[in-house]
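Is flavin mononucleotide placement plausible here? Inputs below.
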Amino acid sequence: MTTASLPRLLLGLDDHPISQLDEHLDVHGPLPSLRKRDRQQLIALIEDAGLRGHGGASFPAARKMRAVTSRRGPSIVVANGCEGEPASMKDGTLLREVPHLVLDGAAVAARAVGARAAIVALPDHDDRTAHALQAAVRDRQRAGIRDDPSFEVARLEPHYLAGQESALVSALGGGPGKPSFTPPRPFERGVRGRPTLVQNVETLAHVALIARHGADWFRQLGTPSDPGSTLVTVSGAVASPGVFEIEHGMWLSELLDSVGLDDRLAAVLVGGYFGTWLTASEVPRVRLASESLSAYGATLGAGVVVALGAGACPVAESTRIAEFFAAQSAGQCGPCVNGLHAVAQTVQQLAAGTADRTARSDLDRWTSQLPRRGACQHPDGAVRFIRSSLRAFEAEFRDHARRGPCERCSSPPVLPTPARRRR
Ligand SMILES: Cc1cc2nc3c(=O)[nH]c(=O)nc-3n(C[C@H](O)[C@H](O)[C@H](O)COP(=O)(O)O)c2cc1C
Ligand code: SF4
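Reply from A.M.:
I modeled the complex. Tokens:
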């Protein structure tokens, strides 16, 4: 067993991407032959490693693989690189910088669930990433890697819901790319009518390393609940924003120290837009692992960490994101469409100082009624963010409700809401 240290996924990435197959093999070595590996043994290996998904929900990867193998007939693997989360850059980074690691992981997953085909899905505006990935696929075909499934690269319309797995399966089948209400679920009958394993591209890159180095190696880093390392995208009021690989369980304050703050810290958004605000006074007590984050109702989600400086207005930021959520609703479920619109409008009125006296209690009621009322978790994630904003910035919301916009409301936005990702 090789010894564990960081980086793992980003190993060997000094000044240029590891796009050539021979460079990739120099850095990571070859994958052990998959033909000799029993499928159930491969899944047991992932289970022993304790690998959880890195697409947001942190679901155990092996459990999902087992669900797919419980179905009859050939299955299919989808590597989810849609990265709908506006503040995340990790998936595009992996696909561009270490495409072979993701493809290796997809090959292992395909072997584990009995799939002969794997589709890598990514947003269609990202030419650079698509070209890097297509070149890597061609490189492997030329090299004639025997264990590879047939790889396809699918470029999909980018929007916040694009990567939700039933929306993704629908788009890959030429459908509308919206979450579906009704069974079958993707693992039962997904792309091309086959049982479909949808796994985030970072999850697959970890699979590639676990197949090489084993479960014990993987567990040498991290915590019991969140073994291993994770990519985080750090942005906001920091001197060196970017994608970093950290050990699960790292202190949040240590991560912020390492990137350097360029303003006095007001709060940190952890997990992404479905995530949770931690106030500056909470930050020193928080480690980036579920054991610690759960005490604050937070998760690491898709690995997004946004530092909000004192020069930004948290109410203006929260209002923009509430409006973004309402605009991103796929327009299928009444509670989501009407509820998120009403929430966004009321938050906007609080920010403008024009809300009526029932606004806060209306928000409390709506945000407690909305979870689990949609076909997907969009409303659940949206109200988690709103409730967290109202808690973390209670005093600021009260001031805005009384006096209207503050002088910081016109500061440049910190949380991106890219127009091109709107539906
Ligand atoms: C609204 C919404 C958007 C999502 N967007 C993405 C995404 O862009 N990329 C991703 O990997 N997972 C996304 N997910 C999670 C997927 O549905 C799915 O759980 C994930 O791809 C499974 O991979 P994992 O288990 O490896 O994390 C999203 C979920 C929701 C509810
Ligand atoms: S809950 Fe909202 S986003 Fe999800 S499918 Fe229904 S309308 Fe669309």
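Short version: Residues 161, 179, 329-333, 336-337, 374-376, 378-379 surround iron/sulfur cluster (ligand 2) (CB under 6 Å).
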